[in-house]
Amino acid sequence: MNQPLPRISVLSCSIVLFLLSYAGSELTRAEDLPRVPDGFSVERVTNSELTKYPMMAGFDNRGRLFIAESSGENTRAPQLIKEPKSMIRMLEDRDGDGRFDKSTVFADKLTLPMGALWHDGSLYVASPPNIWRLTDVDDDGVADERKIIVDSFGFSGNAASIHGCFRGPEGRLYWCDGRHGHEFKDKSGKVTSKGLAARIFSCKPDGSDIEVHCGGGMDNPVEIDFTPEGEMIGSVNILMTRPRVDCLVHWQEGGVYPHFEDCVEEFKRTGDLLGPITRFGHVAVSGMLRYRSTQFGPEYQGNIFTSIFNTHKVIRSQLVRNGATYETKEEDFLVSDDPDFHPTDVIEDADGSLLVINTGGWFRIGCPQSQISKPDIHGAIYRIRKTGTPELNDPYGLALDWSSLSPHRKIQLLNDTRPFVQQRAIEVLAEAGDLAVPRLAKVVSSPAGSFYNDTSKRNAVWTLTRIGTPKARAAIQRGFDSSETVQMTSAKSLGALRDRNSITGLVRLAKEGKPAVQRNAATALGRICEAGRRDGVSDADLETVVESLFHAMKTGSPDRTLEHALIYALIRIDHRDLVLAGLSDSSPAVRRAALIALDQMNSGNLTRELVTPLLDTDDPALQKEALTIIGEHEGWASETLNLLKTWLSEEALSEERAAVLRGFLIAQSADPEVQSLIAQSLTSSKTSNSAKGILLEVIQRSALKEFPVSWRTALEQTLKSASPDLQILVVRIAQTHDLPALSELLKSLALDSKQPANLRIESLSAVGPQMQAVDQSTFDFLVSRMNEEYPPLDRLAAARALSGLPQSADQLIQLSQQLDAPGPLALPVLLRAYAKSTNEEVGLALIKGLNGSSAATNLSADELASLLQKYPESVQKAATPLLKKLGVDLAQQKAHLESLKPLLTEGRIEEGRKIFFGKKAACAGCHTIEDLGGKVGPDLTRIGAIRTGTDLLEAIALPSASFARGYRSYLVVTDEGKIYTGVISRESTDTVYLRTADLSEVRIARDEIDMMKESPISIMPKGLEKRLTSQEIRDLLAYLQNRK
């Protein structure tokens, strides 16, 4: 958040919406308040007359709290643009009792404002699609001037858009942008920047000099804050998927982060994608801050406090230095048992108390917890204090007459115990310009143990940074000889200023400093020597800089964060000749850094002849990088064949080597020599079964328009002679790709009663659509496999096979008499068998069978209605009561959940584990716990830490009531009229892969898609609570709640 600012009374405003006296009344009963640790107190400091749906907030220099407030409506972007209803609300505490008592609308008619930063007399707000500066010229409490300083950004209305603004210690404005794209134009209308990825941007306060700090494929970076050294920590949702990771990140300049590949490709990469420092799980993080005051005690100073929307809490994270970055230690700080308590921001007031914003129950769009909006449940603001702590005297420094303070006194205030006073001192001294430099220089260069501690020195450096003159820059360099924390600050400062005179000192820090110092020095050197912006930097300096970066790579085994900074600096410098020398260095780490830099820099001109010699190494990291780069260049693959043959002949491939091999072969699957290698290895006796499994996976995942003849021949041989496990993989390839040459062989397997049942069923799924008719014995075989004696996944496979067979009218009628047997997982799949018929008798038998099936409640009313459109009117009329029954009744859902809540107690954890991994519930068919289970649904390893028991109960009983992000079902209709429903498992530029309800993966060419939309029905079957006993449900819930 922005720096804490003062709270004082002001002149009455002309437009006052609400005045409220709190005297003699409590806003919330003590037992209804959230819980905080012993030694702390919490109270509610607003009511609904003051604010109803607060989201984010920040103080101004009078202590007024500016709140980004929602209208309480869930509205998509087009309507928000057309009819903006949200606002910036201003709250005041006129009597200084800590409770707000006056509310004014500062700015209305905004789309969805997500932040508030007061700076130099104006409020800076991110309200998509723009960054705004709002100014109250006549001081009446209402913004008179609204100016767009940066535009424009994409958004959908689900709050995963732009957030901010935030002020960096060097004086720049920052904001976070969700993964909805941006497009900037100059005054002539020329596009200057464009992209789809999420990013963290910065600019000068006037909107000029826009820079990208970092970016990637994450969904929603929310807020950032800065350590005393200027390190950026931020909260972000969906940094990773499967399992989903909402987290804190130490954002690195030039860093590239997961998870959407198309977005990642917009950036220069330095190796593996960077990751988080804290993994909260699937919780929906929101606003955060770094606590500056000492009022909570020294052990809290510098801690990160993060609001967690889903789990109704604020988490405290202690930052601990770990190499060039941080690790954290977490504990709950504020917890509410109210399921409609949704914290969205944490703000530090100048007195050291914390404000926590609860937005209430209105939010639904994109909410991973529920699809039910509850605008009648209003939000509120809570204040947390440390009990027994004396109040700060004049926490804002309002009693100080800044204009008459001596320069020495102002310097002293750089180390004041009041955070706001420190910041005010920085601003006042910066305004003095070069006149303040001599005294500030003295502070920076003062010896350890002197009057000026590290806080004074760091704040002096930031003051000099804002002054920015040559004299100020020279004074900052004195910090190179100070403590680690001051060295980091000085390096970051001079990098921000692109000060070429500091190169010598920064080179020394890059070589000799501790990892975090090395990282900041490397980043600074990359900025200063960046190609196109390094006027005045000599060739000798460039050579010294590159040598220092290579030196840091080969000494001390740099961690990934430091490695990124070193390589990114090389990429920025973009000097091919100097970096080229690194390819022949004795250190494999240097060779790898040079290889990545040359591949990514604009003038790298990397050739195959430069890369292939690097494969001759025992260093796995270098070998992997060389293979990755070769795999990205068409026509380079032949140089790798001997190495790959060696790997494929190994009895057991390591996980890392298997991943490299798989990725390389998929990337190079269009290369004829690679195709030949795959075919030969697949039929070779020297290739292990595990390696053959990888090769078959590569074939299945390839997106080639023409299937290689050599592969088809190899598949035929594998299908005839391999083990059943490999045969099934071949059959699944035939299901994904159109391979008519395998049809007869597949048919013979399918009809051979001596073959394993699962192989027969998979073969029927592959060849069934090509058959003219199905004989009765095969039909009876599949129907028998749907009996309850078989596990749900086996019944699902049988249903999948039956749905593709050309059944006669008599067979469909016979099948309709068995619709209770498949169960809720398989029935929606089996229903597809009736899409090929228009026979009235068949249709009526289907409706009769569905009415008698307890599993029919898992059907989609829309999909069933669509299927019946081709049937006669009599069938559609007969289906009317069923279709009405399948509609959603929210009141009925709520009552059903209430009736199940007693099952949240008295469960047995170990028995619940057996149920989860057992055949009756078949949870592990789709979900993973501790790397065991399927990958179709979310990973549930830590589900108990991020979901309440009620949430889990709703997910089981009403799986379509809410969707985990990344697991939304889609309905796809092809040009040929085929209908598919499933979760998008992966995508390429020309293909969409759906994981359907029958757990198969369907490959659909984009140019064959007629319509694609979100489906309201989850592929997770409804009705599990009806198929398990009450005790089994209790046990399963106990097991899931214990997964923390």
TrEMBL record:
Gene Ontology terms for molecular function:
electron transfer activity; heme binding; metal ion binding
Q: Which NCBIfam families match?
A: CxxCH_TIGR02603 (TIGR02603)
* Protein's name according to its UniProt entry: Cytochrome c
* UniProt organism field: Gimesia alba
Indicate yes or no for the key word Iron: yes
Q: Which PANTHER family match?
A: LARGE, MULTIFUNCTIONAL SECRETED PROTEIN (PTHR33546:SF1), LARGE, MULTIFUNCTIONAL SECRETED PROTEIN-RELATED (PTHR33546)
**Database matches in InterPro entries:** 6-blade_b-propeller_TolB-like (IPR011042), ARM-like (IPR011989), ARM-type_fold (IPR016024), Armadillo (IPR000225), Cyt_c-like_dom (IPR009056), Cyt_c-like_dom_sf (IPR036909), DUF7133 (IPR055557), Haem-bd_dom_put (IPR013427)
PROSITE patterns, per database record: CYTC
Positions of the Cytochrome c domain:
907-1044
| Keyword terms, alphabetized | Heme, Iron, Metal-binding
